[in-house]
């Protein structure tokens, strides 16, 4: 009886681990795309439409746009750490309830 119970429980645990892995990979993919696109987009957008539009010199607009991009990277990293922390704690809680 113990063997059949173990045989039935193994696929369920495997499915839960696969769903957990898919969730982690989706989160990682989302933040990877954000890390690539958002800072670059903000750099060129802020340089062209914000800083040069307000009359900053070309050199100054490069500097300020780079600062905006660096801030965006830090914000994305902070959100990634927050999401990873909460995802790990919710999986731990779900595992303890079983």
From TrEMBL:
<dbReference type="GO" id="GO:0070072">
    <property type="term" value="P:vacuolar proton-transporting V-type ATPase complex assembly"/>
</dbReference>
<keyword id="KW-0812">Transmembrane</keyword>
<dbReference type="GO" id="GO:0012507">
    <property type="term" value="C:ER to Golgi transport vesicle membrane"/>
</dbReference>
<keyword id="KW-0256">Endoplasmic reticulum</keyword>
<comment type="function">
    <text>Required for the assembly of the V0 complex of the vacuolar ATPase (V-ATPase) in the endoplasmic reticulum.</text>
</comment>
<dbReference type="Pfam" id="PF09446">
    <property type="entry name" value="VMA21"/>
</dbReference>
<dbReference type="GO" id="GO:0033116">
    <property type="term" value="C:endoplasmic reticulum-Golgi intermediate compartment membrane"/>
</dbReference>
<keyword id="KW-0472">Membrane</keyword>
<protein>
    <submittedName>
        <fullName>Vacuolar ATPase assembly factor VMA21</fullName>
    </submittedName>
</protein>
<comment type="similarity">
    <text>Belongs to the VMA21 family.</text>
</comment>
<dbReference type="InterPro" id="IPR019013">
    <property type="entry name" value="Vma21"/>
</dbReference>
<feature type="transmembrane region" description="Helical">
    <location>
        <begin position="21"/>
        <end position="42"/>
    </location>
</feature>
<keyword id="KW-1133">Transmembrane helix</keyword>
<feature type="transmembrane region" description="Helical">
    <location>
        <begin position="62"/>
        <end position="85"/>
    </location>
</feature>
<dbReference type="GO" id="GO:0005789">
    <property type="term" value="C:endoplasmic reticulum membrane"/>
</dbReference>
<keyword id="KW-0968">Cytoplasmic vesicle</keyword>
């Amino acid at each position: 009886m113990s063997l059949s119970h173990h045989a039935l429980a193994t696929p369920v645990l495997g499915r839960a681990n696969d769903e957990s892995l898919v969730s982690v990979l989706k989160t990682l993919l989302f933040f990877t795309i954000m890390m690539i696109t958002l800072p670059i987009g903000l750099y060129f957008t802020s340089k062209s439409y914000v800083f040069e539009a307000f009359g900053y010199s070309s050199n100054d607009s490069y500097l300020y746009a780079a600062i905006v991009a660096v801030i965006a990277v830090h914000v994305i990293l902070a959100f990634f750490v927050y999401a990873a922390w909460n995802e790990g704690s919710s999986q731990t809680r779900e595992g303890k309830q079983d």
